[in-house]
Amino acid sequence: MSRTVIRGGLVITASDEIHADVLIEDGRIAALATSGTPAAEAFTADRTIDATGKYVIPGGVDAHTHMELPFGGTFASDTFETGTRAAAWGGTTTIIDFAVQRVGHGLREGLDTWHAKAEGNCAIDYGFHMIVSDVNQETLKEMDLLIEEGVTSFKQFMAYPGVFYSDDGQILRAMQRSAENGGLIMMHAENGIAIDVLVEQALARGETDPRYHGEVRKALLEAEATHRAIKLAQVAGAPLYVVHVSAMEAVAELARARDEGLNVFGETCPQYLFLSTDNLAEPDFEGAKYVCSTPLRPREHQAKLWQGLRTNDLQVVSTDHCPFCFVGQKELGRGDFSKIPNGLPGVENRVDLLHQAVLDGHISRRRWIEIACATPARMFGLYPKKGTIAPGADADVVIYDPHAEQVMSAETHHMNVDYSAYEGKHVTGRVETVLSRGVPVITEREYTGHAGHGVFTPRSTCQYLN
Question: Mind giving me the DSSP string for 50-110?
């Protein structure tokens, strides 16, 4: 039996802050006791970690990543090996990635393909959502089978006609099935049919620079699709989780639905909280680095996103980590913004950026842990195994130095991408040590993990539903 004790830190969960020592046995949290008390002094262990002056927080749960995703004639530049290592450096100990069903193929085939990509390669634990691109009777039956295997959420797209797009009828059928089987439909809510018209018109006018990516993917078309998805879910009697919400008008749709008592949930991402169309407009094609969908919005949207996180109209901050190198990948769209691969790197930055948001007064410390760890774990059926520090939970624990200062940069990050979306940004707070199921993956700012430690983690259904 291996035992570790973490002494002297401030343990922060979504519900509590307590100066406590943490005892870990065989990869799980065994006990907590207030530091300095006889109960804590009685903890014995093979390894002691001194967390004096530090935070002891649950490992982050990033519920939205795309490792090795094929997109736009290329692939996301992080593999499961490089991406999960970078996640660990950023204090994330579980990712939920997206397996892809190709049109004309089954869900099982897509899931098997993603299992093969990830198995034996991950530094931290992982789960899968399933992208449903082709709704038919066989697909609907397969949804039931995947839920039994712990793949309990299914993503559909109102965008990308000809690639991932589902029409309203296909969406309704999948939602009806999830209402029966307990699954959760995740929605990319943008009116892709209308957007394609605006893209075509912009290019015809000679508007080819990256900034036009944001101008054609209008906030109103995100709000319209969000509203439509909510109404389809209401008709189906199904819950709905809207991914990467970026527009204040879409937040308003979610808030209205929640006020009506509907099981509607929303996620945003750090890029929408910290970046804006100013980045998309950077000269010399630099704006291509910031092309993602939903797109970055004008800066005034940020305040409404933060407000949504404080009022719980938005519940989760995930990264939508989908990196493409500037050289050779983002450059595919020189002269035509519609050919720029959509996606940003961020899996390593989320926990630090949200800690900075605590210091900036946007959220509380406990809310930081709630939106980065506990709520994504509950939303996707991983709690209390993941997302908290409590007896019985997996010992996914981060020793976090709240006083360390750092400058975010491609020169020092560990993601397999040649730029940082936050290049030169000063933040306070940094991951020092990371345990995954009690095993040190980062030890005092050194990588001590290895590919293959992380295992596939089956999930139960959404824990916010009756």
Answer: E-TTSEEEEPEEEEEE-TT-EETTEE-S--HHHHHHHHHHTTEEEEEEEEEPPTTS-HHHH
* Cα–Cα distances in angstroms (integers) from residue 459 to residues 161, 238, 358, 423, in the given order: 30, 19, 30, 35
Cβ-proximal residues to 11 (8 Å cutoff; 6+ apart), any chain: 17, 18, 19, 20, 22, 32, 55, 56, 57, 389
> DSSP states of 171-189 as a string?
HHHHHHHHHHH--EEEEE-
**How many Å apart are CA 94 and CA 395, to the nearest integer?**
12
DSSP lists the bridge partners of residue 397 as 58, 435
Q: Using 50, 70 and 90 to split pLDDT, how confident is the model at 291?
A: very high
pLDDT at 466: 55
* Chain-centre distance for alpha carbon 369: 14
| Residue whose pair of structure tokens reads 């809310």 in the numeric block | 367
What mean pLDDT do residues 19-47 have?
97
> Distance from CA of residue 156 to its chain's centroid?
16
Peptide bond between residue 384 and the one before it cis (omega within 30 degrees of 0): yes
Tens digits of per-residue pLDDT, 315-338? 999 999 999 999 999 999 999 999
pLDDT band at 73 (very low <50, low <70, confident <90, very high): confident
Asked if 86 contacts 122 with a C-beta cutoff of 8 angstroms, the reply is no
- Measured distance CA(340)–CA(296) in Å, rounded: 14
Q: What's CA 7's distance to the chain center, in Å?
A: 30
| Phi-psi domain of 429 (left: phi exceeds 0; alpha: psi -120 through 50; beta: other) | left
Whether the Cβ atoms of residue 400 and residue 92 lie closer than 8 Å to each other: no
Mean pLDDT calculated for residue range 404-417: 98
